[in-house]
Target: Peptidase M20 dimerisation domain-containing protein
Amino acid sequence: MTSSPNAKLDTVLARIDSDLPAATDRLLELLRIPSISTDPAYKGDCDRAADWLVTDLQSLGIKAEKRPTPGHPMVVGHVDGPKGSTGPHILFYGHYDVQPVDPLNLWRRDPFDPAIEDTAKGKVIRGRGSADDKGQLMTFIEACRAWKAEHGELPCKITFFLEGEEESGSPSLVPFMKENADELTCDLALICDTGLFQSKTPAIMTMLRGLLGEEFTITGPDKDLHSGMYGGLAMNPARVLTKILGNLFDEDGVIQVPDLYEGVPVLNPEMKAQWEGLGFDYKTFLGDVGLSEPAGEASVTPLEMIWSRPTAEINGIWSGYTGAGFKTVLPSEASAKLSFRLVGTQDPLAIRKNFRAWVEAQLPADCKITWKDHSCSPASQMSTDHPAFEAARKALTDEWPDPAAYAGCGGSIPIAGYFKSILGMDAMLVGWGKDDDMIHSPNEKYDLESFHKGTRSWARMLAAMSE
Amino acid sequence: MTSSPNAKLDTVLARIDSDLPAATDRLLELLRIPSISTDPAYKGDCDRAADWLVTDLQSLGIKAEKRPTPGHPMVVGHVDGPKGSTGPHILFYGHYDVQPVDPLNLWRRDPFDPAIEDTAKGKVIRGRGSADDKGQLMTFIEACRAWKAEHGELPCKITFFLEGEEESGSPSLVPFMKENADELTCDLALICDTGLFQSKTPAIMTMLRGLLGEEFTITGPDKDLHSGMYGGLAMNPARVLTKILGNLFDEDGVIQVPDLYEGVPVLNPEMKAQWEGLGFDYKTFLGDVGLSEPAGEASVTPLEMIWSRPTAEINGIWSGYTGAGFKTVLPSEASAKLSFRLVGTQDPLAIRKNFRAWVEAQLPADCKITWKDHSCSPASQMSTDHPAFEAARKALTDEWPDPAAYAGCGGSIPIAGYFKSILGMDAMLVGWGKDDDMIHSPNEKYDLESFHKGTRSWARMLAAMSE
Model:
């Protein structure tokens, strides 16, 4: 008879430790591919990143292939567990695409020439995608590699599902899941795209905010004008845009879009108490980025602002002359990109409708407006009933100094909800990112500790869940 | 005895008519030089434009040279009139620098590959600088060329003073005028950088608005952040910027900067009556650019909005991600460029101080702000006492269908005030631009009629003023 997965764990962990330099080199290779999904100029690079992953998975004996979509390809792979394994059939999800890198001048190195750097806080892997999400998805693949190398097989049956459009709203995801529902349905989905709580406590995210992305352009005069010739008489769309967005919040930080708070749940006392128990240190959290004061609704706690309350953020605005020097132009157009984070049962489509009506009601007669849709996903609440959750929480507690916690997450990972609604399976969100990883920002990094202990954590979780 | 200037005029006008094709070719040559003064990348081109003018002036027997400044060079030239001429010593001012060309994608041709185009309204010279100001300054030089060709000399003593920094706030102008006051002081200055009233009535501008240019950057977090991780908790500088600029005007279009209207004169009844007599057709003026409603102070007339009232215009705003697709970033910085048009005795420095204090008073504790100075010039009111004004007005009336008018001007031509304050001479502002020339915009043009009749007008004015 074969020994139990847990009995096989020690040699896997040892292999992960000794293989760390080679594992890091593999990650650096993947990080050199500039797979920016939102910018059409990088389509070929997204394709190369998918090919790289297919080849790597195949080297583990996994039946992997690149699957086309109208956008960037999916990478899908399948591998069986041991004969007679009683473990669950697990799906692992990660994404190989990355965020744009601008403002490029703020990077201290080429974002796609990654390297290991020594910092005051220890060794880090610096480069775009190191933390979001290439470094994270490779922790799982490296854990599988160690299992395969030590024991010739993986401890349970696994389906790999790697996406290339997560940073651009995942337009192909839902259609692909629906078309391939039978193939992708497993007992449980593992999603590795989140972080540790306060950079030290392993966390299984059970509450995810939704995301609504909006973009609009206001047009006033049909061409740029001389501000001396027309100024004061011709309506300036930049004036209109700032006036409208200037009304987005009241003095208490409450979003002014009608009915926006419909479906926002009241935080139940138990959860509120557990969160207070976590002792969220918002002063350090904000201090790390040069701030000190919570900017959200005056009536809620800082942790609620990022976990359980809806938000509206201006992600970009542009109008007129933005180059060096000065140009006395009265611009023809002014544009903005905004995103709303959604919670509870807030309806993204209703909020899109209400937001657009709210903006258009403030538009002067002489201005036109055009809209672009971006992401549109509701919030989701994970069930933790599947026994794998408690097994995973114990395994995580064995690896890290602090016991693992069930936590909320400010970010939006729509796929978690889709696994439930389309494939009927629960999703477990676990990751090793830290608050100071600067994902989506210049100088993104991933701690070597996150990469190493993250890989070890997956090895432990695979064993625990396969018992 | 030599015949009078007026007796010599007819052959000069005939020469201008026959020389028009060659004159147009010379202008196209100058327009091909991309002398964008505000952008350091074009420094060499500004220099080339100055050299081109020096060579052209020298070909008319004018002692011309390029004179260095800390910025772009001045072109200065001198030529005597006829022996025993009783005419005034005239200074002619124009500028050889041009505005930036963005947004480039809106140009129907390369802005620096100019050409004559047939349009529904007749032939036009299309290209950046065709109207502002290369085409205009060349009308004067071509008039001189014709006088020289027909009579071997010019009808009066003339000093040429051509600038290369007008579109970037003329930083070197005042120091240069002060250092060379003796050389530049004449009886009267002619400035060719304005237009016809409503595209048809020749106008001598007697009222010019001042200009104050401001630029600021608001910094919130010290790096770009993930809007999901920090959104709702961290202050967003784009939210702060839109909030502040959204307060710039009240519902009646009144600018909210404290004391801004100090020094704004009440329009006297005579001037008000004369302006009403001009029958300004604001519906066509706005209709030409796709608008219909006056956007200025509810309490004043459309003509006052562009001639005699102060304005505040947002010339540019930028923050966060402005590229293709979507990026859920919470930006670190948000910036704006604004310009104020000033009238009467409004004090630009006081308004700069009050505006900055007004902005900073609205800044949250967590935000920093940095400022950049741009143009800073008061409004000016021209005196028309010098007999040359009436002589010029008659000469203009001879050339054009409508009698010439004394008019206001929305734009800002600070040098007019400097000629008076530094050199003690009056300035006469005359030009041939039309409302639809799209100066400072894509597809700038100058009507061939403006170029031709403008040249003829200068010939007439030189004769009339030299009598």
